[in-house]
Structure formats: structure tokens, C-alpha cells
């Protein structure tokens, strides 16, 4: 479709003018730091504070075996025994002098039930605290009443450690399934952000040139398609540069971080994080496995194909309007295929080999995000990867054909807010 090399001049200008900006340099440097903080800090904070709450809880113990004393002994900072009646405690709560109280009696304990009274709320930490200490004490008591010896109970209370192994041609290796699933989610989210950001950048660039009448000068020396494709290639090269810098950073991180972390590891703190993380299903070790080079190649490949797929549509939208506000209405059909796969990422992570995940990841508009997640979370058959690339390429050629027609007509039309019917008319007459 490119009839001459003029588009390279446009692409070069777009690339150089953007990589020299402070915004590009700052985002390239701080991007990995921000993403690591976005993933690690909430996970660590949640792990360390899953059963933390400011609320204190009074215990009305009506059992004949004094189970409330065992709970207070286990956590005296949060639980205490009260002799007041529930009616009195209700008044105390309404007066704001008590956070909550719970009632224990023989029947409730036998049925594994706990009645908790408060003003409402309290957060997850409040419920987790009760489940951990009260639920644990009741379960232990019921097991003892059932005749289970203490040694067996202690064995049952131990957390099970699951270590998965992967069979390869080189032999049996440790399988970091949980890490790679989370890593795949992060990469899929990065692809989503990058496609959204750079696609919108193409659209804004086209709108600005049209609004400033710069495009009229460009059209006098280059064909509309060359202008559009040059802008897409130039801005895409900016995104690729940023991605490659991050890939190198990630590669160096996997090599250096385990050694650096090992130098500062405090056994007591690590044990605390490990114990807390097991309660929420988090990774219980600071261990970063090697990132397969094939995964990084797939990440770059799907970003590039996804970018070209969506940026052609964004360019067409930009050419059809005079200002960014007008683009919001007609850009919805382009934004939706970007947002929809994010809604299904958790389903794909949970069952990456399932029929649903397979079909959704082969949909061209969803592949950049969902196939990236699948490749990280499981071993995707090579034919599915090839098929997804072929479908995306075919869709890209269809999209660029449509966008080129819209661009050719719309780039020189001013003072008119087009609707979908108008755009369809452009496609017919172009």
C-alpha cells in the first residue's frame, strides 16, 4: 500500500520528536518502578495486614468449658471477657464505647457458629481476625471433643506446601506456575496500557495536525496514506523503544534481584511475610524464576501487532473529527475491544487451557492481551500462537483498508461532526 518512501520521513519526525521529550524519558525510567510498586506493595501490605484491625472485641462466654479464655490467651490485645449482658453491650456500642462483641454458647460452638454484634463495617481485617482466632479455637475444641488427639490436631493445622514440578526434555524442573500466572497478568495489563496510550497518541496527533491545518501542507507533498502510515510507524517505534528498554530492565532484574534481596533478607521478617501470605494465597518466597526469552519475544510481538491493529483505527477516527471531544462518541467501538479482554483476564489465568480461554485469546482484538496472559500461564500449542498471529495480520489489513479510506476523505473535511452513517458513506465513495 505504501507507494513511496515519504512516509519514512514522517515516521522519523514522529519518532525523534517524541523520544526527546521529558515525558518519554520520565515514563521510561519510572514505568518499571511504578509497575513493580503497583504489584508488590499492595500484595505485601495485604499479606502483613490481612488480620489487622483497630477494633477490639468483647466476648460473652456462656460455654461450660471456657473457650473464651483460650481466645483471649491467643490474642489478648483484641479480645477480652465481659460479664455484661448483651442488652448492656448493645447500649455501649450505640454510645461508641465498644466496637463489637461476640456470643459463645455450647450450641453455637457445636454448630461451628459465632454471633458477632457491632455497628457494622470493620473491614476484611475484622472478619479475618475473628476467623483466625475464634474460628481456630472453636475448630480445635470440636476436634478434641470428637476424640482427636492433640498431635493429630497440630498436624491438621499445618499449612500444606504445594511444590509443582514441570516435565521437560531436559528433565524434571521446578514449575513456577503461580509466579508466571501473576507475571502474565502484569504483562497483559502492560499491553493494555500501552495499546491504549499509544493508540490514543496516534489519534490526538492526527487531530492536532488537522486542527492546526498542518495536514494541508503535508497532503501537498505526500499521499494521505503515507501520512497516516508514517505517523503510525513513528509513534509505534516510540512504544517499541520503551518496551525494549523495559525488557532489558526486566532481564537484568531477574539476574540481579535474587542476589540483592538475599543480602538484606531478615529471617524473622521473611517468616512473618511467609506466614501471612499463605493466608491469602500469595507467593510465600522471594524467589524470581528466570523469564523465558520466548515469553519476552511473544510480549513484544503481540504488542506490535496489537498496536498496528488499534492505531490504524484510532488514526481513522482522528481524521474524521476536528477536536478530541468529538472523537469520544465514535471511538467507543475501538475502546470496547481493548476493555473487554481485561474483564476476562482472571478467567484466563484461572483456566488458561480451557475452551473459553482458547477461543477468547484467538479473537484478533483480544489476542494481544489474553494470548500474552496464556503464554505466560501455560504451554500454549504453537499452532494456536501462529493462528492468532495470522488472524491478527488479516484483521490488521482489513482495518488499515478501512482507516485509509476514512483518512483520505475525512482529513480535509472541517466543521462537521460525523456520525457512523456519514463514515459509511465515506467508505463507499473513497
Can you offer a commentary on this structure?
The protein is mostly helical and 430 residues long. Helices cover 70% and strands 6% of the residues. The chain contains 19 helices and 6 strands. It has helices at 6-19, 22-49, 67-74, 86-94, 106-110, 123-145, 150-156, 177-211, 214-219, 224-264, 267-279, 293-320, 324-330, 332-343, 345-350, 355-362, 367-377, 382-410, 420-429; strands at residues 57-61, 79-81, 100-104, 115-118, 165-168, 171-174. The strands form 2 sheets. It has a 4-stranded mixed sheet, sandwiched between helices. The protein has a two-stranded antiparallel sheet with strand order 5-6. Helix 3 (67-74) links the parallel strand 1 (57-61) and strand 2. The longest helix is centred in the middle third of the chain and has 41 residues, at 224-264. The chain is elongated, with a radius of gyration of 29 Å. Residues 272-286 have low confidence and may be disordered.
Amino acid at each position: 500500500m505504501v507507494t513511496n518512501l515519504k512516509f519514512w520521513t514522517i515516521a522519523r519526525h514522529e519518532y525523534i520528536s517524541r523520544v526527546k521529550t521529558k515525558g518519554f524519558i520520565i515514563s521510561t525510567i519510572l514505568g518499571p518502578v511504578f509497575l513493580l510498586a503497583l504489584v508488590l506493595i499492595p500484595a505485601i501490605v495485604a499479606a502483613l495486614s490481612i488480620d489487622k484491625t483497630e477494633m477490639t472485641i468483647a466476648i460473652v462466654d456462656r460455654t461450660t468449658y471456657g473457650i473464651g479464655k483460650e481466645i483471649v490467651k491467643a490474642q489478648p490485645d483484641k479480645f477480652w471477657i465481659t460479664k455484661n449482658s448483651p442488652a448492656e453491650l448493645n447500649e455501649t456500642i450505640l454510645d461508641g464505647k465498644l466496637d463489637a462483641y461476640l456470643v459463645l454458647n455450647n450450641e453455637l460452638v457445636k454448630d461451628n457458629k459465632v454471633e458477632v454484634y457491632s455497628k457494622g463495617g470493620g473491614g476484611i481485617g475484622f472478619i479475618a481476625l475473628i476467623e483466625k482466632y475464634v474460628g481456630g479455637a472453636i475448630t480445635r475444641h470440636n476436634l478434641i471433643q470428637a476424640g482427636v488427639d492433640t498431635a493429630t490436631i497440630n498436624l491438621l493445622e499445618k499449612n500444606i506446601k504445594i511444590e509443582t514440578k514441570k516435565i521437560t526434555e531436559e528433565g524434571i524442573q521446578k514449575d513456577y506456575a503461580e509466579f508466571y500466572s501473576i507475571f502474565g497478568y502484569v504483562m497483559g495489563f502492560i499491553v493494555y496500557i500501552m495499546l491504549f496510550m499509544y493508540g490514543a497518541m496516534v489519534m490526538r496527533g492526527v487531530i492536532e495536525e488537522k486542527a492546526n491545518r498542518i495536514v494541508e501542507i503535508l497532503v501537498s507533498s505526500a499521499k494521505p496514506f503515507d501520512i497516516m502510515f508514517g505517523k503510525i510507524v513513528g509513534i509505534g517505534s516510540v512504544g517499541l523503544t520503551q518496551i525494549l528498554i523495559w525488557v532489558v530492565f526486566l532481564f537484568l532484574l531477574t539476574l540481579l534481584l535474587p542476589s540483592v534481596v538475599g543480602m538484606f533478607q531478615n529471617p524473622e521478617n521473611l517468616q512473618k511475610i511467609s506466614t501471612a501470605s499463605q493466608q491469602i494465597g500469595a507467593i510465600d518466597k522471594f524467589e524470581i524464576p528466570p523469564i523465558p526469552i520466548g515469553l519476552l519475544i511473544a510480549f513484544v510481538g503481540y504488542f506490535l501487532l496489537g498496536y498496528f491493529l488499534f492505531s490504524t483505527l484510532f488514526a481513522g477516527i482522528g481524521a474524521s473529527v476536528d477536536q478530541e471531544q468529538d472523537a469520544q462518541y465514535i471511538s467507543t467501538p475501538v475502546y470496547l475491544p481493548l476493555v473487554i479482554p481485561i474483564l476476562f483476564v482472571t478467567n484466563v489465568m484461572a483456566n488458561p487451557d480451557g475452551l473459553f480461554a482458547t477461543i477468547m485469546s484467538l479473537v484478533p482484538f483480544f489476542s494481544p492481551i489474553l494470548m500474552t496472559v496464556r503464554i505466560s500461564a501455560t504451554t500454549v500449542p504453537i499452532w494456536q500462537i501462529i493462528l492468532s498471529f495470522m488472524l491478527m495480520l488479516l484483521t490488521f489489513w482489513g482495518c488499515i483498508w478501512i482507516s485509509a479510506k476514512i483518512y483520505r476523505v475525512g482529513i480535509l473535511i472541517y466543521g462537521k461532526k460525523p456520525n457512523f452513517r456519514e463514515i459509511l458513506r465515506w467508505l463507499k465513495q473513497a
